[in-house]
């Protein structure tokens, strides 16, 4: 089943061009020679209600929460509805207010996560419209929600989620496009995103070529105690998810940090030893990331800069310890590209450190007890 690969996680990372293709298959509508819009069968009768909701809540745990975070800004931009992020366990601990006028979107690869499922029962009891985004047809969350989207990423066996994460972002991006389709002013933006969705599998193929570079980086980092990852905007999710991958499989402490918070504490950790990855690909926030890089350099930070191909000198004129150069897509799709080198890095770190890649210590694929 693993084919030519040594581990399921490795196979699933390299399968992403195909899993993303499957996620999009039959969902992009052609109008003349061009793809014009998206069709999500499980959502189409509910789009009007969602557009009219007072608020959208994204609810999930771990990686699935990060996928929601990666698409939050686009859903807000194209629907005009504010989006609140909720970790399922925290929503339940607080019994946070949920209203009949809310749309609650439950993101779960397995569709069986206990906290997410309990949050679904809670939101239903409050009268919210409940939408599922799952990878498992017939799962408890798929069955219990009023409507939803299957991400169709295919079976994921490695405990660390990889291809399900990128497919969740692709599926929720299509959901944002569907929510925005009644708005004329966003037409060219939506068309540009659709064009890049079509390019996505090829761009992922391109970024997978960084495999050897990530193995080399893993060799350099394998003895480290800790790794920080700074991101912002669309790539705050990349920072959190990249750090989660490294911590859960390579058993190395790693922390994803919102770069805008750097001066409010994390800066104190910076010295010439602690490796720091800064995600600074081209988008509306990259000027701010340039200034973060300068401040980290001024403190002699050991920087690894992830930037758009060809931007290394621009983003970091004084050089860095290492660059990870990735292809460019529309800003909202960039998290799908940017997570891939982190997945590869986490994989190689784990193999080099001698840990179990597919079954990390103390973790289960599906957390069915809260
Ligand atoms: C990490 C990972 C977990 C899951 C989380 C929720 O790689 O896979 O953080 O994302 O346990 O699981 P699902 O998505 O099945 O609800």
TrEMBL record:
E.C. numbers: 2.6.1.16
Instruction: List the catalytic activities from the record.
Output: D-fructose 6-phosphate + L-glutamine = D-glucosamine 6-phosphate + L-glutamate
Specify the enzyme's EC class, one word.
transferase
All copies of the SIS domain together span 46-186, 217-360
UniProt keyword terms in alphabetical order: Aminotransferase, Glutamine amidotransferase, Repeat, Transferase
What is the name listed in the Swiss-Prot or TrEMBL entry for this protein? glutamine--fructose-6-phosphate transaminase (isomerizing)
The organism is: Sphagnum troendelagicum
Upper lineage is: Eukaryota, Viridiplantae, Streptophyta, Embryophyta, Bryophyta
* Location of this fragment in the whole protein: 335 to 704 of 704
